[in-house]
Predict the 3D structure of the following.
Amino acid sequence: MPRIAVKRLHKDARLPHYAHTGPYGDLAADLYSVEPANIEPHRTAVVSTGIAMAFHADYGALVEDRSGLAVRGITTLAGVIDPGYRGEIRVVLINITDSPIALAAGDRIAQLRIVRKIEADFHEVDALDETLRGEGGFGSTGQ
């Protein structure tokens, strides 16, 4: 289990928290806002968590949606935290509805999924191997 150092940058900040743990526990930990935010329709907002983290060189994290907010029309953007980043974790949220949505300080605003860093060796080729799907794009396997 990776051990991740978390520094509170704000006195009211909450550390990421798994609501359910164990063999069938949560895939990601909740992230909490440290400030209220009012997100206008079709606008983005950057919401502070009041924490910074130190990841081991082999790990990073992805910031993901919370289903409870997504169903209300709030989704996340730009959610990659690299191993070397040590600044505040801030969450970019967008309101895709036609009404403003208010978030309070302490609200769960996103989920933090820890990932192992894998570096790929990208190299150019003249052709790719054939597969059953081939060049079929989004939705090509049916609805």
Summary: Residues 5-116 form a domain with the Deoxyuridine 5'-Triphosphate Nucleotidohydrolase; Chain A fold (CATH 2.70.40.10). The two ends are 38 Å apart (CA to CA). The longest helix spans residues 67-70. The chain has a mean pLDDT of 94.
